Prior knowledge:
The structure is a homodimer. Chain A is α+β, with helices and mostly antiparallel strands. The first copy, chain A, is built from three helices and eight strands; from the N terminus they run H-E-E-E-E-H-E-E-H-E-E. Chain A has helices at residues 2-14, 58-65, 94-100; strands at residues 20-26, 32-38, 42-44, 48-54, 68-75, 80-91, 118-132, 135-140.
Amino acid sequence: MEKRNRLEELAAELIDGQNLSFIGSVDEDGYPTIRAMLRPRLRDGVETIWFSTNNPTDKVRHFQCNAKACVYFCDSLRFRSLLLKGEMAVRTDPEAKGLVWREGDEMYYPGGADSEDYVALRFRVHSAEIYGNFAKEVVPLD
Amino acid sequence: MEKRNRLEELAAELIDGQNLSFIGSVDEDGYPTIRAMLRPRLRDGVETIWFSTNNPTDKVRHFQCNAKACVYFCDSLRFRSLLLKGEMAVRTDPEAKGLVWREGDEMYYPGGADSEDYVALRFRVHSAEIYGNFAKEVVPLD
Lengths: 142, 142
């Protein structure tokens, strides 16, 4: 329970407080791949995290072939970070796309949330690793 | 050639100019994993890049089982990033460890470069992806 509380606190600090998140996928040749993304659009605790992105991109293609994913949040000034592992679903249905759509997105997607080049990513997390003070803690979420 | 020149320029800007790099590995269950690292200790162009790290860590263990790796460098203010893919070798030999050892490391490794908890990582890069201005360029290095 104590671990779980620390995870919730760190999630609030790092997921909501940092502008960038780093998304990891595995490419078609088995190589890990990293991309910087803006912070998530929505989250339900640390179990389900939603992003928006353009389509197609390498990471969308990777996740369509292999859902295994990680997302990394890092406060480099305080040497604290959070690594979440789980499955990433590429959601092209109007309900999911509407959920992550925000005012201002029309600057990049003039066709609105229905644009084919706009998709939602739903990340279901099964484990969390907390790094800080030169130590690591694993928090299983299943 | 023009692509190659852009890559060298961006490498100088991002690899040498940013404090952090992000290392990607694949864990024993096939999930991608990301860790922030300090900037590389040494590089020969973008083909060979050396890091120092402590041992054992998850990433050292991952690379000992699966050498496929990526390293990501990102300038978030200018929306430019560089993703390198290749093979990471964990080097525990004195020659490699001496190569990456720097003054000040004894604060963390009182036993010096010979410490068992100090290792070198040698990254051999086979492809580079440059991101900037909402576009991607791939530069094969083989």
